[in-house]
Hints:
- By secondary structure, this protein is of the alpha/beta class.
Amino acid sequence: MFNKLTLINLPPNSEITVPALGEVFVLETCQRTIILGYNDLPHKFVGTNCDQAEVFNGSTAYNFLLAIICGLKSKVVGESEIVNQFKVGLKRYMGSKLCSPYICNVLEKLLKDSKRVRTDHLLEVGQNSYSGIAKKLIEKQYRDGTVLILGSGALALSLIKILKKNHQLSISARNDKKVRQLCTQFNIESVSWQEKNKYEEFNVIINTIGTEAVLLDQQFFSKWQVQHKGLGFFVDLGLPSSISTPLDSSQGIYRLADILDLGVMLDSEKTKRVELAFDKIDQLTKSRMMNFTFNVPFGWGELNFTQP
């Protein structure tokens, strides 16, 4: 059963057919699109224009996806945001009435094994995560001052924790309840989601919200630049990006791609820890292959299309 796993690794934003019946697990990030399933099923969902597909089978598929979840295939080596993305994808998939129990079992084991690898080898390697790199960028130009964080999820929480010591923080997000909780917990200020015009007052803004809708457009950035005489600093960590402006890093607008590129340089000294993490992944993969067992709830096996 283990040796029938198939994983297809595609470039980000690749054309795929979204599975309707839980035949495969799909994970889309800013760096790749993953399709995991059994036998030839994953190939069914790859678009006709995808000519850069990498295919992995059996233990190699498990090994490769485990390395991805551990952040070892990311530009920012060891970054932890991929774990949150995987957890969200796993929760969404397992919440489907037609999810495959066989695939769920594999995904749960991957999550457990990734925790072991991170605990043993990657606790410090991941410090140059998106939030850590954003902190370095900000403190290079602004030793102190106010920072506005947009969003209230895991990435926003990470930013609050590492910035609150040296910066006066404010937060703005759609979820009023979570905003209140964060303000109370960390003694920070809030800006109403309905008053986005007040964002212009902040010379440093970090966006963690990913949405297809445009949150801030060129009209906002034009006013914001005038307000701060072209010296404002904006970091967009949202996926997909929710800002619309031609401005780039030379004008103080840093996008996720800029953060990833900077992370490549910052991670060069972590080589040894990463090598040990890869060794651990190989050990765990071999162990899973030898002891792989499934506990399938009665009746789920009737979903023939999900059976390997």
